[in-house]
Amino acid sequence: MGQLWATSTQGGLLYSPLLSKETNHAAQPLLRFKQFCDMKMEAGKNKGETFLFDKYGNIDTGGGTLTETATIPQHGFRVYQGTGTLYEWGNSVPWTRKYESLSQIGQRGPVQRVLSDDLAKTLDTAVEAQFDACKVRYNATSTTTGTFHTNGTDTETQTSALNRYHAKTIYDYLWNTLNAPPYFADGEDYGGVLSQNAARGIFNDCETVQMYTQFPMKGEIGRYSQLRMVKTNHGLSNAVGNGSAYGEAYFFGNNTVMEGIAISPIIVPKEVTDYQRSRGLAWYAILGYKIYWA
C-alpha cells in the first residue's frame, strides 16, 4: 500500500503540530551478526552470480631448529576454496505527492530511517542463517555439565542457563579441541553473540564477583574467560530448553562468514510516475553470505 495522506497510521499523523519533528520510531533490532563478517568487495561484479574465496590450512610441517650449514626447509600449506552465491536484496516504501506536500515533516528522512532499519534486520538475519550452519553444538545439561555435538544437531534438552562454567568450557573447546584462531586481533579473545536470556545467565553469574569487563564494541556487554560477547534481540531464540527458560548463543573464532559484495546496500529513489504524483524510496543490494568452515 505505501504511505497515503488519508490514512493516519500511514503518515497523516505526521501533520500534527503536537508531535515532535523528531519522529519516534518503533524500536528496531540492532545489527549484530554482520559486523563479524569478512568482506570480499566487488566479489561478483561483472563476473557472474557466484563468488569464490580462499581458505588456508596450516603449514604441512612445522619449523624447528637449524644447524649452521643447513638450508632452511621449505614446506607448503593447503588452500581450500569456498563458494557463495550473490542475490538481489531490497525493499521499498512508496508515497503520494499529496502525502509529501502536506506533511510538516520531511518525508525522505523518516522513510530512509525505516528502510535502513529493515536493511539491517534483513541482512543480519541472512548472516545468522550462515552462523547456524555450523557443525558444533553445545548443550548446558546442568549448571556444571554440558555436552558437545559435532554433527550440527543437538538432541538434548537444555536444563541450565549459560554461566561461568559453560563459558570456560566453550573457550577450552575452541582453544584446545578445535585449535580455532581467536577472532580478535589481540590473538587471545573469541567472539560471542548472545540472546537476552543467554546474556542474562552469564551476567548474573559474573556480576556478583565483579568479573565482567566492558569493551567499546557495537552491542558488547562484556568479556569473560577470553570471550567477548555482544547481545542481540533477533535471530536467536530466547526461549529454549526446559520450560523455554533459556536462550541461544554463538561463540566463534576467526573466519566466520564471508560476505560477497557486487553492489553495497544503497538507498535509491523511485522513478517518479503518474505525472509526478507517485514517489518512493528503496534499499537495494547485490550480495551474498557463506559460512567459512562447516
Task: Describe this structure as you would to a colleague.
The protein has 294 residues and is of the alpha+beta class. It folds into two domains: 29-56 and 79-130 and 258-291, no CATH class; 137-177 and 181-253, no CATH class. The chain is 19% helix and 31% strand. The protein contains four helices and twelve strands; from the N terminus they run ββββααββαβαβββββ. The chain has helices at 97-102, 108-131, 164-177, 196-207; strands at residues 38-41, 50-59, 77-85, 87-96, 137-142, 145-149, 190-194, 220-224, 227-231, 249-252, 257-269, 278-291. The strands form four sheets. Strands 1-11-12-4 form a four-stranded mixed beta sheet. It has a four-stranded mixed beta sheet with strand order 8-9-7-10, with helices on one face. The chain starts with 37 loop residues before the first strand and ends with a strand. Residues 12-28 have low confidence and may be disordered.
Write a brief structural summary.
The chain has 294 residues and is an alpha+beta fold. It has two domains: 29-56 and 79-130 and 258-291, no CATH class; 137-177 and 181-253, no CATH class. The protein is built from four helices and twelve strands, in the order ββββααββαβαβββββ.
